[in-house]
Design a protein that fits this description.
The chain has helices at residues 16-21, 23-31, 58-70, 85-97, 111-117, 157-174, 176-184, 193-212, 227-240, 262-281, 285-298, 309-317, 347-359; strands at residues 2-3, 10-15, 37-38, 46-49, 78-83, 103-108, 122-127, 132-139, 144-145, 245-247, 254-256, 328-335, 338-345. The protein is of the alpha/beta class.
Length: 360
């Protein structure tokens, strides 16, 4: 039980979409004492930010700092981050750096945040031109992460799928049995106790990895599977979402490109890096085929063309996982449940993987 009375002030950070859909549910949970939170935060001490990855910027972090300063937050204050990955990441960073660090709690409201950003202690925001995902951040653990499954009832299907991609990643790193169970699960049944158990297992797996390597120096890097390619696709689509219609350099076809949820891009990255795992590490081809089929049936084809390869490679060159300038590293799989970290991948190999992804 998290006792809020031990803090001199309690502040709540959320975004416009969560405030509309989840905030009433959150307070009802608190009032009914179904949550691990005791006592109710003061609504007057709530900051509501614009929603969306495009607002995961230094300007938004500055708004959080300004809000805390204007409301006289002290080092004995608490910040509750109620939202998805963007809010948990930014709120955690702002709390960790305000007055050299104040306590914060994550209350993830999306499946993605529950199994990814809500736990693990990675905080940060996107920075650079173009924006590089989470390029500025610190490691800081929340004093608690509160999982309230009833909040998932507010999610549209695409947000459930976004989080499910991270669960697929965890299962692929864990065992053939874990991956098989998720690939066969009926995604229409996301409110059952069985699905709740799957979430618990996914979170427990991530936490076990983080505990072994809290500052991401080695083993924790297995959690990067799918993210080298996935983050590049996400960054490219985010950049183009500002001008959603563009003409392909290869044809007269016009493509409608818009920002995709993080998990969709991770799923595209999982398939591309599974292909690399087959080519470089000898992972069985049937695993690549199975993951590819699952992607197409649930997430659709990756919204990229061959004209995007060079831009994607440039983005991968700036990935924070790279150890040396000019090299690109991935986490790959020798087989399901047997990851290998820090695998250097050549531009030619990455183009081949992107070509495979685009062929689906």
């Amino acid at each position: 039980m998290l006792d809020l009375s031990r803090y001199d002030r309690v502040f709540l950070l959320t975004d416009e979409q969560v405030a509309k859909c989840c905030l009433p549910v959150f307070y009802e949970v608190v009032r009914s004492q179904k949550s691990e939170v005791r006592s109710q935060p003061n609504l007057a001490d709530t900051l509501v930010l614009p929603a969306g990855e495009e607002h995961k910027t230094l300007a938004s972090v500055q708004r959080i700092w300004d809000f805390l300063l204007e409301h006289n937050a002290t080092r004995n204050s608490l910040l509750i981050n109620l939202g998805g990955g963007v809010i948990c990441d930014m709120g955690g960073f702002a709390a960790a750096t305000y007055m050299r660090g104040i306590a914060f709690v994550n209350v993830p409201t999306t499946l993605l945040a529950m199994v990814d950003a809500g736990a693990g202690g990675k905080t940060g925001f996107d920075y650079g031109t173009p924006l590089i995902k989470n390029s500025i951040g610190v490691f800081a653990q929340p004093v608690a992460t509160i999982y309230e499954p009833s909040l998932l009832s507010t999610l549209p299907p695409e947000q459930l799928l976004s989080g499910y991609a991270e669960m697929i990643k965890h299962a692929a790193l864990q065992s053939p049995e874990a991956l098989g169970e998720l690939l066969e699960y009926d995604l229409r049944d996301c409110s059952s106790l069985a699905f709740g158990e799957l979430i618990k297992r996914s979170v427990a797996f991530k936490q076990s990895v983080v505990e072994q390597d809290p500052h991401d120096h080695g083993w924790r890097q297995i959690l990067n599977f799918g993210h080298t390619v996935g983050h590049a696709i996400e960054a490219l689509l985010l950049e183009r979402s500002q001008n959603s219609e563009f003409r392909s350099q290869d044809s007269e076809v016009r493509y409608q490109i818009s920002e995709k949820p993080h998990g969709y891009c991770v799923m595209y990255g999982i398939v591309a890096e599974a292909y690399l795992s087959h080519v470089i590490c000898g992972m069985p081809a049937e695993v690549v085929s199975t993951l590819s089929r699952f992607m197409l049936e649930n997430y659709g084809a990756a919204p990229i063309t061959c004209s995007d390869y060079e831009a994607l490679l440039q983005l991968m060159q700036h990935d924070k996982k790279n150890k040396e300038q000019g090299t690109i590293v991935c986490t790959l799989l020798c087989s399901v449940g047997q990851p290998i970290v820090g695998q250097t991948v050549t531009p030619a190999q990455l183009r081949e993987a992107l070509e495979y992804l685009c062929s689906l």
